[in-house]
Amino acid sequence: MDPRNSDGSAGRRPLDLTQLRTFLAVYRAGSLTEAARRLGLAQPTVTGQIRSLEQQLDHQLFERLPRGVAPTAVAHDLAARISAPMDQLALVADRTTTAPAEPVHLGGPAELLAVRVLPVLAPLVARGVRIRVSAGLADDLLDGLRARRLDLVLSAIRPRGRSVVATPLMDEEFVLVAAPTWAARIGPLAADDPAPLDDVPLIAYAEDLPILRRYWRHVFRNRLTSPPALVVPDLRGVLAATVAGAGVTVLPRYLCVEELRTGALVPLLEPEEPPINTGFIVERANSVPDPAATRVRDVILRAARAW
Protein backbone atom coordinates (compact mmCIF):
# COMPACT_ATOMS: atom_id res chain seq x y z
CA MET A 1 0.00 0.00 0.00
CA ASP A 2 2.41 2.67 -1.23
CA PRO A 3 0.67 4.90 -3.79
CA ARG A 4 2.96 7.00 -5.99
CA ASN A 5 2.62 10.61 -7.03
CA SER A 6 1.58 11.54 -10.55
CA ASP A 7 5.23 12.09 -11.55
CA GLY A 8 6.05 8.50 -10.62
CA SER A 9 8.08 9.38 -7.54
CA ALA A 10 7.49 7.45 -4.37
CA GLY A 11 5.17 9.22 -1.99
CA ARG A 12 2.03 8.74 0.01
CA ARG A 13 -0.99 10.86 -0.67
CA PRO A 14 -3.17 11.56 2.35
CA LEU A 15 -6.14 9.24 2.57
CA ASP A 16 -9.58 10.77 2.61
CA LEU A 17 -11.16 10.63 6.08
CA THR A 18 -14.66 10.27 4.63
CA GLN A 19 -13.56 7.25 2.62
CA LEU A 20 -11.87 5.75 5.68
CA ARG A 21 -15.05 6.26 7.72
CA THR A 22 -17.05 4.54 4.99
CA PHE A 23 -14.49 1.72 4.79
CA LEU A 24 -14.75 1.12 8.55
CA ALA A 25 -18.55 1.07 8.36
CA VAL A 26 -18.48 -1.53 5.55
CA TYR A 27 -15.84 -3.55 7.39
CA ARG A 28 -17.93 -3.69 10.56
CA ALA A 29 -21.28 -4.21 8.85
CA GLY A 30 -20.06 -6.82 6.36
CA SER A 31 -22.38 -5.30 3.78
CA LEU A 32 -22.40 -2.28 1.51
CA THR A 33 -26.15 -1.96 1.91
CA GLU A 34 -26.05 -2.09 5.71
CA ALA A 35 -23.11 0.33 5.85
CA ALA A 36 -25.02 2.76 3.64
CA ARG A 37 -28.01 2.54 5.98
CA ARG A 38 -25.86 3.17 9.05
CA LEU A 39 -24.12 6.13 7.42
CA GLY A 40 -27.27 7.61 5.93
CA LEU A 41 -25.82 7.42 2.41
CA ALA A 42 -26.97 5.94 -0.89
CA GLN A 43 -25.41 2.58 -1.64
CA PRO A 44 -23.81 3.79 -4.93
CA THR A 45 -22.07 6.50 -2.90
CA VAL A 46 -20.64 3.91 -0.51
CA THR A 47 -19.60 1.67 -3.41
CA GLY A 48 -17.90 4.58 -5.14
CA GLN A 49 -15.98 5.59 -2.03
CA ILE A 50 -14.73 2.05 -1.48
CA ARG A 51 -13.63 1.77 -5.09
CA SER A 52 -11.81 5.10 -4.87
CA LEU A 53 -10.03 3.98 -1.72
CA GLU A 54 -9.07 0.67 -3.33
CA GLN A 55 -7.65 2.53 -6.34
CA GLN A 56 -5.63 4.84 -4.14
CA LEU A 57 -4.25 1.92 -2.11
CA ASP A 58 -3.84 -0.23 -5.22
CA HIS A 59 -5.29 -3.15 -3.25
CA GLN A 60 -8.67 -4.83 -3.10
CA LEU A 61 -10.33 -4.33 0.28
CA PHE A 62 -13.42 -6.50 -0.01
CA GLU A 63 -14.44 -9.60 -1.87
CA ARG A 64 -17.99 -9.29 -3.17
CA LEU A 65 -20.18 -12.19 -2.03
CA PRO A 66 -23.73 -13.17 -3.02
CA ARG A 67 -24.78 -11.66 0.31
CA GLY A 68 -22.50 -8.95 1.63
CA VAL A 69 -18.74 -8.59 1.40
CA ALA A 70 -15.73 -10.28 3.00
CA PRO A 71 -12.68 -8.24 4.05
CA THR A 72 -9.32 -9.11 2.53
CA ALA A 73 -6.08 -9.33 4.49
CA VAL A 74 -5.34 -5.75 3.45
CA ALA A 75 -8.69 -4.66 4.88
CA HIS A 76 -7.99 -6.42 8.19
CA ASP A 77 -4.64 -4.63 8.40
CA LEU A 78 -6.11 -1.24 7.53
CA ALA A 79 -8.96 -1.64 10.03
CA ALA A 80 -6.53 -2.58 12.80
CA ARG A 81 -4.50 0.59 12.15
CA ILE A 82 -7.30 3.14 11.76
CA SER A 83 -10.13 1.91 13.99
CA ALA A 84 -8.85 3.39 17.25
CA PRO A 85 -8.07 6.90 15.91
CA MET A 86 -11.25 6.95 13.82
CA ASP A 87 -13.32 5.94 16.85
CA GLN A 88 -11.67 8.66 18.93
CA LEU A 89 -12.41 11.17 16.20
CA ALA A 90 -16.02 9.98 16.13
CA LEU A 91 -16.29 10.48 19.89
CA VAL A 92 -15.11 14.07 19.52
CA ALA A 93 -17.56 14.62 16.69
CA ASP A 94 -20.40 13.11 18.71
CA ARG A 95 -19.98 15.85 21.30
CA THR A 96 -20.97 18.41 18.69
CA THR A 97 -23.83 16.52 17.03
CA THR A 98 -27.11 14.98 18.12
CA ALA A 99 -26.73 11.94 15.87
CA PRO A 100 -26.82 8.83 18.11
CA ALA A 101 -24.10 6.19 18.01
CA GLU A 102 -24.86 2.87 16.34
CA PRO A 103 -26.47 0.40 18.79
CA VAL A 104 -24.69 -2.71 20.02
CA HIS A 105 -26.59 -5.79 18.85
CA LEU A 106 -26.56 -8.48 21.55
CA GLY A 107 -28.12 -11.94 21.31
CA GLY A 108 -28.65 -14.70 23.84
CA PRO A 109 -31.14 -16.93 25.67
CA ALA A 110 -34.15 -14.93 26.82
CA GLU A 111 -33.88 -16.15 30.42
CA LEU A 112 -30.18 -15.36 30.85
CA LEU A 113 -30.61 -11.97 29.24
CA ALA A 114 -33.54 -11.03 31.47
CA VAL A 115 -32.28 -12.40 34.77
CA ARG A 116 -28.52 -11.85 34.62
CA VAL A 117 -27.42 -9.67 31.73
CA LEU A 118 -29.83 -6.76 31.33
CA PRO A 119 -29.53 -5.65 34.98
CA VAL A 120 -25.73 -5.32 34.72
CA LEU A 121 -26.03 -3.41 31.43
CA ALA A 122 -28.42 -0.82 32.85
CA PRO A 123 -25.60 1.55 33.95
CA LEU A 124 -24.14 1.51 30.43
CA VAL A 125 -27.51 2.39 28.94
CA ALA A 126 -27.87 5.21 31.46
CA ARG A 127 -24.50 6.56 30.27
CA GLY A 128 -25.63 6.64 26.66
CA VAL A 129 -24.70 3.23 25.21
CA ARG A 130 -27.45 2.06 22.87
CA ILE A 131 -28.20 -1.69 22.88
CA ARG A 132 -30.53 -3.87 20.83
CA VAL A 133 -31.27 -7.32 22.29
CA SER A 134 -32.33 -10.42 20.37
CA ALA A 135 -33.41 -13.61 22.14
CA GLY A 136 -33.23 -16.99 20.47
CA LEU A 137 -31.52 -20.34 20.09
CA ALA A 138 -27.74 -20.53 20.02
CA ASP A 139 -27.35 -21.80 16.46
CA ASP A 140 -29.59 -19.08 15.00
CA LEU A 141 -27.88 -16.35 17.00
CA LEU A 142 -24.40 -17.55 16.01
CA ASP A 143 -25.47 -17.46 12.35
CA GLY A 144 -26.53 -13.86 12.93
CA LEU A 145 -23.14 -13.09 14.45
CA ARG A 146 -21.29 -14.54 11.47
CA ALA A 147 -23.56 -12.58 9.13
CA ARG A 148 -22.76 -9.40 11.13
CA ARG A 149 -26.35 -8.87 12.18
CA LEU A 150 -25.19 -9.25 15.79
CA ASP A 151 -22.07 -7.95 17.54
CA LEU A 152 -22.05 -10.28 20.56
CA VAL A 153 -23.78 -13.55 21.37
CA LEU A 154 -24.26 -15.35 24.67
CA SER A 155 -24.19 -19.00 23.72
CA ALA A 156 -24.92 -22.18 25.65
CA ILE A 157 -22.75 -24.10 23.18
CA ARG A 158 -19.13 -23.60 22.15
CA PRO A 159 -19.22 -22.51 18.50
CA ARG A 160 -17.04 -24.19 15.91
CA GLY A 161 -14.96 -22.58 13.20
CA ARG A 162 -12.37 -19.84 13.03
CA SER A 163 -14.75 -17.03 12.14
CA VAL A 164 -15.74 -16.47 15.79
CA VAL A 165 -14.00 -16.37 19.17
CA ALA A 166 -15.68 -17.75 22.31
CA THR A 167 -14.73 -16.71 25.85
CA PRO A 168 -16.05 -18.83 28.76
CA LEU A 169 -18.67 -16.86 30.64
CA MET A 170 -20.26 -18.95 33.39
CA ASP A 171 -21.04 -22.51 34.46
CA GLU A 172 -24.75 -23.33 34.74
CA GLU A 173 -25.59 -26.01 37.31
CA PHE A 174 -28.85 -27.83 36.68
CA VAL A 175 -31.17 -28.90 39.50
CA LEU A 176 -34.21 -31.22 39.55
CA VAL A 177 -37.03 -29.31 41.25
CA ALA A 178 -40.71 -29.44 42.14
CA ALA A 179 -43.17 -27.57 44.32
CA PRO A 180 -43.33 -28.80 47.96
CA THR A 181 -46.61 -30.69 47.36
CA TRP A 182 -45.04 -32.76 44.57
CA ALA A 183 -41.84 -33.26 46.55
CA ALA A 184 -43.86 -34.73 49.43
CA ARG A 185 -45.75 -37.07 47.10
CA ILE A 186 -42.59 -38.27 45.34
CA GLY A 187 -40.58 -38.83 48.52
CA PRO A 188 -36.82 -39.40 48.71
CA LEU A 189 -35.00 -40.04 45.45
CA ALA A 190 -31.88 -42.07 44.84
CA ALA A 191 -29.40 -41.24 42.10
CA ASP A 192 -29.70 -44.77 40.74
CA ASP A 193 -33.50 -44.97 40.68
CA PRO A 194 -35.71 -42.48 38.80
CA ALA A 195 -38.72 -44.83 39.06
CA PRO A 196 -40.63 -42.59 41.54
CA LEU A 197 -40.78 -39.99 38.76
CA ASP A 198 -42.34 -42.27 36.15
CA ASP A 199 -45.91 -40.99 36.58
CA VAL A 200 -45.06 -37.39 37.49
CA PRO A 201 -45.90 -34.65 34.90
CA LEU A 202 -42.74 -33.29 33.29
CA ILE A 203 -42.43 -29.63 32.34
CA ALA A 204 -40.01 -28.66 29.54
CA TYR A 205 -39.17 -25.77 27.26
CA ALA A 206 -39.05 -27.99 24.16
CA GLU A 207 -40.89 -31.10 23.01
CA ASP A 208 -37.72 -33.22 23.01
CA LEU A 209 -36.90 -32.34 26.67
CA PRO A 210 -33.21 -31.53 26.08
CA ILE A 211 -32.40 -30.41 29.64
CA LEU A 212 -34.40 -33.17 31.28
CA ARG A 213 -32.93 -35.86 29.03
CA ARG A 214 -29.44 -34.65 29.82
CA TYR A 215 -30.15 -34.73 33.55
CA TRP A 216 -31.53 -38.27 33.34
CA ARG A 217 -28.51 -39.41 31.35
CA HIS A 218 -25.94 -37.69 33.58
CA VAL A 219 -27.43 -38.37 37.03
CA PHE A 220 -29.64 -41.44 36.69
CA ARG A 221 -27.58 -43.10 33.91
CA ASN A 222 -30.93 -43.74 32.35
CA ARG A 223 -32.73 -42.82 29.14
CA LEU A 224 -35.77 -40.61 29.63
CA THR A 225 -38.68 -41.82 27.48
CA SER A 226 -41.68 -40.09 29.07
CA PRO A 227 -43.25 -37.27 27.00
CA PRO A 228 -43.64 -33.81 28.53
CA ALA A 229 -46.95 -32.86 30.10
CA LEU A 230 -46.36 -29.14 29.53
CA VAL A 231 -44.08 -27.39 27.05
CA VAL A 232 -43.30 -23.68 27.51
CA PRO A 233 -40.66 -22.20 25.14
CA ASP A 234 -39.24 -19.98 27.89
CA LEU A 235 -37.55 -21.26 31.04
CA ARG A 236 -39.16 -18.47 33.05
CA GLY A 237 -42.52 -19.94 32.09
CA VAL A 238 -41.28 -23.40 33.04
CA LEU A 239 -40.24 -21.98 36.41
CA ALA A 240 -43.63 -20.34 36.98
CA ALA A 241 -45.54 -23.51 36.08
CA THR A 242 -43.37 -25.62 38.38
CA VAL A 243 -43.84 -23.23 41.30
CA ALA A 244 -47.60 -23.39 40.67
CA GLY A 245 -47.50 -27.18 41.05
CA ALA A 246 -47.79 -28.38 37.45
CA GLY A 247 -45.10 -31.01 37.89
CA VAL A 248 -41.35 -31.61 37.89
CA THR A 249 -38.61 -30.01 35.82
CA VAL A 250 -34.88 -29.34 35.59
CA LEU A 251 -33.72 -25.72 35.69
CA PRO A 252 -30.42 -23.86 35.81
CA ARG A 253 -29.85 -23.02 39.46
CA TYR A 254 -29.30 -19.30 38.77
CA LEU A 255 -32.85 -19.05 37.47
CA CYS A 256 -34.53 -20.57 40.52
CA VAL A 257 -32.14 -19.64 43.33
CA GLU A 258 -34.70 -17.35 45.00
CA GLU A 259 -37.47 -19.97 44.81
CA LEU A 260 -35.13 -22.54 46.35
CA ARG A 261 -34.22 -20.08 49.10
CA THR A 262 -37.85 -19.34 50.00
CA GLY A 263 -39.03 -22.93 49.68
CA ALA A 264 -41.34 -22.26 46.73
CA LEU A 265 -39.34 -25.01 45.01
CA VAL A 266 -37.65 -28.03 46.52
CA PRO A 267 -34.59 -29.79 45.06
CA LEU A 268 -35.57 -33.44 44.63
CA LEU A 269 -31.98 -34.62 44.49
CA GLU A 270 -28.57 -33.13 45.26
CA PRO A 271 -26.09 -35.32 43.34
CA GLU A 272 -22.39 -35.03 44.07
CA GLU A 273 -21.74 -34.14 40.43
CA PRO A 274 -24.73 -32.27 39.01
CA PRO A 275 -24.92 -31.60 35.29
CA ILE A 276 -23.07 -28.41 34.39
CA ASN A 277 -23.07 -26.49 31.14
CA THR A 278 -20.54 -23.78 30.28
CA GLY A 279 -21.86 -20.66 28.60
CA PHE A 280 -19.77 -18.43 26.33
CA ILE A 281 -19.71 -14.87 25.11
CA VAL A 282 -18.90 -14.94 21.41
CA GLU A 283 -17.63 -12.31 18.99
CA ARG A 284 -16.29 -12.33 15.46
CA ALA A 285 -12.64 -13.17 14.93
CA ASN A 286 -10.22 -11.08 12.88
CA SER A 287 -12.27 -7.93 13.22
CA VAL A 288 -11.95 -4.68 15.12
CA PRO A 289 -14.98 -4.46 17.44
CA ASP A 290 -16.92 -1.29 17.98
CA PRO A 291 -15.83 0.43 21.23
CA ALA A 292 -19.38 0.25 22.61
CA ALA A 293 -19.53 -3.49 21.90
CA THR A 294 -16.24 -3.91 23.74
CA ARG A 295 -17.66 -2.08 26.76
CA VAL A 296 -20.74 -4.30 26.75
CA ARG A 297 -18.60 -7.44 26.51
CA ASP A 298 -16.30 -6.35 29.33
CA VAL A 299 -19.17 -5.45 31.67
CA ILE A 300 -20.78 -8.86 31.11
CA LEU A 301 -17.50 -10.69 31.67
CA ARG A 302 -16.82 -8.81 34.91
CA ALA A 303 -20.30 -9.47 36.22
CA ALA A 304 -20.09 -13.16 35.30
CA ARG A 305 -17.31 -13.67 37.83
CA ALA A 306 -19.90 -13.29 40.57
CA TRP A 307 -22.51 -15.49 38.89
Q: What's the structural blueprint in terms of helices and strands?
A:
Blueprint: H1 17-29, H2 32-39, H3 43-57, E1 62-64, E2 69-71, H4 73-94, E3 104-108, H5 110-126, E4 131-135, H6 138-146, E5 152-155, E6 164-178, H7 180-186, E7 203-204, H8 210-220, E8 230-231, H9 235-243, E9 248-252, H10 253-262, E10 266-267, E11 276-284, H11 291-304
Parallel strand pairs: 3-4, 3-5, 7-8
Antiparallel strand pairs: 1-2, 5-11, 6-9, 6-10, 6-11
Helix pairs in contact: 1-2, 1-3, 1-4, 2-3, 5-11
Short note summarizing the structure:
The protein is α/β, with parallel strands linked by helices. The protein contains eleven helices and eleven strands.
Distance between the termini: 48 Å
Helix content: 40-55%
The outline comes out as: elongated
The H-level CATH homologous superfamily of the largest domain, spelled out, is Periplasmic binding protein-like II
Q: What is the residue-averaged pLDDT?
A: 88
Structural summary, described in words:
- The protein is α/β, with parallel strands linked by helices and 307 residues long.
- The chain folds into 3 domains: 17-94, Orthogonal Bundle (Arc Repressor Mutant, subunit A), CATH 1.10.10; 104-170 and 278-304, Periplasmic binding protein-like II (D-Maltodextrin-Binding Protein, domain 2), CATH 3.40.190.10; 171-274, Periplasmic binding protein-like II (D-Maltodextrin-Binding Protein, domain 2).
- It contains 11 helices and 11 strands.
- The protein has helices at 17-29, 32-39, 43-57, 73-94, 110-126, 138-146, 180-186, 210-220, 235-243, 253-262, 291-304, and strands spanning 62-64, 69-71, 104-108, 131-135, 152-155, 164-178, 203-204, 230-231, 248-252, 266-267, 276-284.
- Strands 3, 4, 5, 6, 9, 10 and 11 form a 7-stranded mixed beta sheet that branches. A two-stranded antiparallel sheet has the order 1-2.
- Strand 3 (104-108), helix 5 and strand 4 (131-135) form a beta-alpha-beta unit.
- Helix 1 (17-29) packs across helix 2 (32-39), helix 1 (17-29) packs across helix 4 (73-94) and helix 2 (32-39) crosses helix 3.
- It starts with 16 loop residues before the first helix and ends with a helix.
- The relative contact order is 0.14.
